[in-house]
Amino acid sequence: MLRRSITLAALVSLASLAACSSDDNNVTVPTNTSTVRFINATNGTISAANNGSTDALNSNLAFGTGSTCLTVNNTNPSLVFTNASGTAMSGFVPSFSNGGNYTVVAYTDANGGTQFTTLDNTYAATSGQAGLRVFNAAAGSGDVMVSSNGSLLNNGLVTSFGNAGTFFSTPTGSQTLTFSTAANPTAMGSSTVTLNAGQNNTIVLGPAATGSTALRSFVSTGC
Questions:
Q1: Is the dihedral of CA 35, 40, 44, 45 positive or negative?
Q2: Which helix or strand (DSSP H or E) is residue 5 part of?
């Protein structure tokens, strides 16, 4: 009788474990979401709030810094940007696709207003190389070309203000990236960065710091 009771208890226990296992396999995974990183190419500080929450890592982001990778609901995106005084900023219109990977850039237009642009991070670099593209956030800079260690990249293709070039594959390792124009071959906006194989990067040429005339640049990796 004792043996039968133990056997019955064991069967009940196994049935319970099976039910739990079945429940675990049916865990709901968020659908219709995108992964988004925000980067700031303005001279002001900007905070990024997703689903009504802003943590310390995404608060008061200065020029050349970016947010963590944010999971955004595409059906009802609640990604909001606020300035240093906590006022919600206008001009950002979310446009994401299910499963997408994006970089949102804030930059200052020629009239001093803040604009937002959304860049799709989808790109497969040549095996063993890194993906790189240019975003020109420096008003008045002209059509810029990017060089690595003094050699023009991407066949010298230019990127105009407020626009992004297409991704291209480039060798990995430590590189000093600079910008120039056909009218001004002098290197400007220098950034030293280590590029890793299979990683997509956006190099941003931005405005000079307040009180300076030297343009600055920074590199942001995709999520």
A1: positive
A2: helix 2-25
CATH class of 30-122: mainly beta
Under a CB-based contact definition with an 8 Å cutoff, are residues 223 and 121 in contact?
yes
**Positive or negative, the Cα torsion across 21, 70, 120, 77?**
positive
Mean pLDDT per 10-residue section of the chain, whose length is 223 residues: 42 40 41 94 96 86 97 90 95 93 97 97 97 97 95 96 97 96 90 96 96 96 93
What are 129's two structure tokens? 């190389």
Q: CA-based angle 145:96:41, to the nearest 5? A: 40
Ranges of each domain in the chain: 30-122, 123-223
pLDDT given at position 30: 58
Output the CATH code of domain 123-223: 2.60.40.1120
Q: Are 107 and 162 in contact (CB under 8 A)?
A: yes
pTM of the model: 0.84
The length of the chain, given as a count of residues: 223
Same fold yes or no, 30-122 and 123-223: yes
List residues bridging with 137 in a β-sheet: none
